[in-house]
Structure formats: C-alpha cells, structure tokens
UniProtKB/TrEMBL annotation:
Domain HTH lysR-type as annotated: residue spans: 14-66
Pfam families assigned to the protein according to its UniProt record, in alphabetical order: HTH_1, LysR_substrate
Keyword 4Fe-4S: no
Record's protein name: LysR family transcriptional regulator
Key word Transmembrane helix present: no
Family as reported in the entry's similarity comment: Belongs to the LysR transcriptional regulatory family.
PROSITE patterns in the cross-refs: HTH_LYSR
Keywords: DNA-binding, Transcription, Transcription regulation
Length: 309
C-alpha cells in the first residue's frame, strides 16, 4: 500500500514497541508498562500504519520482529540508551558526583583486575556505583548490544558487528606454575612439556581451550587434564597449592606474579598468541560521563603490565 513517509515517530509508541520486542508478547509488555494490552496493541498498529509495513510476525507462542521491526528496534534501543545517558549527565552535573557504571566481563577479569579498578575509581569519585556482570565470554558483547552494560571486557579473536573496540592488547596463553616446579627453570615451554605433568585446564567450550586443542591437534598431542573447570581462580589455586600446571593470560594471574606465589612462562606452540583483550562499547553510543571516565582508568590498568618473574 502506498503511504506518506512519516515525519516523526511518537516516543510512547516507540517505548511500547521496544517493550514488546524485549518481552516477546503484548501481554507481557503491558504488565511491565502497567498499561492495558489494548493500549499497547493500538500503539503497535499505529506504528505499522505509519510506516506502511508489518513490524512483527505474530505466532501462537509470541511475537518476533520482522526485518523492518529489527531496524526500528535498533532505533528504539539507541533512543532509550541516549535518554538514560542524558538523565545520568543531569544527575551527575558533569562532576562525577553520582552515576552508575555497568560493566560486563568474563571470569578472568572479575577476580582481581576489575575490583581493583573499581576501588581506585571510587576513591576518587565516592558518589559513583558499579554494576559488574560476570558472564561467559560470548555473552559480554551481547550485554552491550542489549543495552544492559556500558563497557565490555573480554577476550576476542574476531571483530563483531555494532561493537566498537576502545582498546585492544595481545593476550597470549601462558603456562602458570609454582616457582619451585621443575618447569619453572625454563624460559619458555611447550604443550608437550606440560602434558608430562598434572594439568588443570578450562573446559572445551572456552576460547582458550579451543586454542590449546587446535594446537594439540596440529601436533597429534593428547592432553589429559586432572582438573577441568570454567572458574579461573580454581585453576590458579590448583597450581598455587602444588597440584601441577595450568594456563592463563597475564592479566588473569598478574596479582600472583607480582606477589611471587606463581610464575608464568610463554608457550611457544603456534597459534597460542592469536588472542586479544578487548575493551568494548556499543558502536555509535556516547557513554555517560561516569562510564567514559572509568573507561580511561580501566585501559590504564590493563596497560600496566609488570615484568613476569
């Protein structure tokens, strides 16, 4: 049907539309909005009439946005984030007296690096609050895309659509072991050398394990870890208490290296250096003042790499 190009989109209609996208149904959206289902339906129908296209595919089990609906959902999400930023800036009055910094991160950064950065920043700006979500690596960027985090901190090996990388640094896989371990005498190690000792590794679905498994596959090497866990601190404590050898990035074990309780050695197997640490934000988004300021401190903390022992 022919239609006139709309000159504007109503804020209420977009807000209701965004809730339906988030909830997957009109009834669930109406509950969250505290309005009648009929009011939500009218706003959706009005948008579809205004744009001259269907915004949802309606199924018995819910509503899924069409291609046009996905485009509009992106606009609605950005408007919501921009409004949140404006409110945060007004409340903080650009003085960092108040505000919330939302960070999504994977396990390796949540144990030491992020808490230390939050403490350092909060001492300078006592009115600020932090919300740190520890999720599997692949879900970090999803939190940014959903508008549920301001800053993402994760390991990555490939670019992602609609994600801006504010900072990147190499994060090769290192062997981590106690200072008195026989392998600690060597300047570098190989996976074959690690395989001759009790070994703790992350599970097969993690990026670091996939890198290790690929390197082993190229060599026809079989690893038989005595401990498998997706918790980075458990792996490090396994080595700390004399259980054997594990693997980590430098940033994940930095505090223990500085204390001298563990040592790290580079692994020379091909492919174990093809991983980066990325500090991510949503592409095209202007961060709230508090998040932007914390971003600078976080990058400084990441770059402060001590010399490995």
């Amino acid at each position: 049907m022919p239609h006139r190009p709309p000159t504007h989109l109503q804020d209420t209609a977009l807000r209701y539309f965004h809730e339906v996208v988030q909830c997957g149904s009109v009834s669930a959206a109406s509950l969250r909005l505290h309005v009648a289902s009929s009011a939500v339906s009218r706003q959706i129908s009005g948008l579809e009439a205004q744009l001259g296209t269907a915004l949802f595919e309606r199924h018995a089990r819910g509503m899924q946005p069409t291609a046009a609906g996905q485009i509009l959902a992106e606009l609605a999400r950005r408007i919501s984030l921009d409004a949140e930023q404006a409110i945060d800036a007004i409340h903080a009055l650009d003085s960092l007296r108040a505000g919330l910094v939302r960070i999504a991160t994977s396990d390796a950064f949540a144990n030491e690096l992020l808490p230390q950065a939050c403490v350092a920043f909060q001492r300078r700006h006592p009115g600020l609050r932090f919300e740190v979500s520890m999720v599997p690596t692949l879900q970090v960027s999803a939190k940014l895309l959903a508008g549920e985090a301001d800053i993402g901190l994760r390991f990555s090996m490939s670019p992602l659509k609609n994600i801006a990388v504010v900072h990147r640094q190499s994060a090769p896989v290192l062997a981590v072991l106690p200072p008195g371990h026989v392998l600690a005498r060597q300047a570098s190690l190989t996976l074959a050398e690690l395989a001759r000792h009790p070994l703790a590794l992350p599970p097969a679905e993690t990026a670091i394990r996939q890198m290790i498994d690929l390197a082993c596959s190229r060599q026809g090497l079989q690893l038989d870890p005595v401990l498998t866990t997706n918790h980075a601190k458990t792996l490090l404590n396994f080595a700390l208490h004399g259980g054997g050898v594990t693997v980590s990035s430098e940033v994940g074990v930095r505090h223990m290296l500085a204390a001298g309780s563990l040592v790290a050695r580079p692994l020379t197997d091909a492919g174990l250096d093809l991983r980066d640490i990325e500090v991510q934000t949503l592409a095209g988004r202007q961060l709230p003042a508090a998040a932007q300021a914390f971003l600078g401190l976080l990058v400084q903390e990441l770059q402060a790499v001590p010399s490995p022992r």
